[in-house]
Design goal:
By secondary structure, this protein is mainly alpha-helical. It folds into 2 domains: 48 residues, no CATH class; 128 residues, no CATH class. It is 51% helix and 3% strand. The protein has a two-stranded antiparallel sheet with strand order 1-2. Strand 1 and strand 2 form a beta hairpin. Helix 2 crosses helix 3 and helix 3 packs antiparallel against helix 4.
């Protein structure tokens, strides 16, 4: 059986004799005198580090703080980072939050149709609520799209494509479907705890 070890940088399983990780390029420590016990201790230490990993880095970049995006955590991330363009937003988090907004808009529309026709006072307050919602959503959507561009290692300036009729919206949609860049880029490190679960 070939001896193996884990890369201390990306956590991938490697042959024991490699000098550099073929996945991330990290120089590998010598494991020549290591026993199976040492390797087991190292693996346990790596697992503990994965569980306590904090995605915020020393530069203060904003990233999703959740290791597995879902409707609730993505919604919190969407509105929690509403005024932050820096950082990254994963593809899953972006699309979960987009689904949240669509569902909220459907519920609000049904509410206004049902209540608006029966009670004039309630419809007045509902109109104010909807107006506030329609002011907040574009701000949050623009910043989320900028963070999503950062996650695929593109400048947020590509958001300006959305002003090109027809073609711009399609281009933005296609960009939002791109996979996240697994390694760090100029906009910050990805949420490695989530990426390690995928591999």
């Amino acid at each position: 059986m070939d001896e193996t070890k884990h890369c201390p940088n990306c956590g991938k399983l490697l042959k024991a004799d490699v000098k550099f990780c073929p996945y991330c390029g990290q120089a590998q420590p010598e494991m020549a005198g290591a026993t199976d016990n040492d390797q087991a201790n190292y693996e346990n230490q790596s697992n503990n580090e994965q569980q306590t990993y904090r995605p915020d880095n020393e530069n203060g970049d904003i990233r999703s703080e959740y290791s597995s995006p879902n409707m609730i955590t993505s919604f919190k991330d969407f509105f929690g980072n509403m005024f932050h363009i820096s950082g990254r937003m994963s593809r899953a988090s972006y699309w979960w939050s987009y689904l949240d907004i669509v569902l909220i808009m459907i519920i609000l529309t049904i509410f206004i149709i049902l209540v608006g026709s029966s009670a004039e006072n309630i419809s007045q307050y509902a109109g104010i609520f909807v107006l506030l919602f329609l002011i907040v959503i574009p701000i949050a959507e623009i910043t989320a799209t900028c963070r999503r561009f950062h996650d695929i290692n593109y400048s947020a300036g590509f958001w300006w494509l959305s002003f090109i009729p027809w073609v711009g919206g399609i281009a933005i949609f296609i960009f939002m479907l791109f996979s996240s860049v697994d390694e760090g880029n100029r906009f910050g490190e990805p949420d490695v705890s989530y990426l390690k679960k995928l591999n």
